[in-house]
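Example record used in the benchmark description.
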Amino acid sequence: MIGEYAAGLVNNEDFIYIDSGTTTSRLIDHIGSTKATFVTNGIIHAQKLLSKGLKAYMIGGRIKPITASVVGAQGVRSLMKFNFTKAFIGSNGIDINAGFTTPDNEEAMMKEKAIEKSFSVFVLADHSKFRKVYPVTFAELKKCCIITDRLPFGGFSDKTIIREVIP
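Model output (structure tokens):
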């Protein structure tokens, strides 16, 4: 549901960053025919975009073996030249005080730069990510709109924009 809803936000004129991750991968499954252009740091994401005949670019840099994603300083330098209309970002944790978090500093650097270079930012996260804090914060809650399957109880709606996707 999250991926399907997010795919509905894609317009023909968009220049979109798609972060690596499982939920952002589901977004690609629901993208139909479009003239939008996509940039990603996920190897699997790039393959899925190409298999759908979509225009895609891959960020260059160090590949993290576990996630098959590009991370680190070289990846950040690659992102610096782009100006995205939209970004779809994944997050390991979402907390009212800590913000959006991840366990890996190099992943955090990529996410932070993509958010900085985007006009609109959507964090795609299922309900299990709320109230979890990982070592590295990559953005404050107010920087992004959260698209999720179920709202957490208490506290979040007054600090950020949350779009709940109801099945």
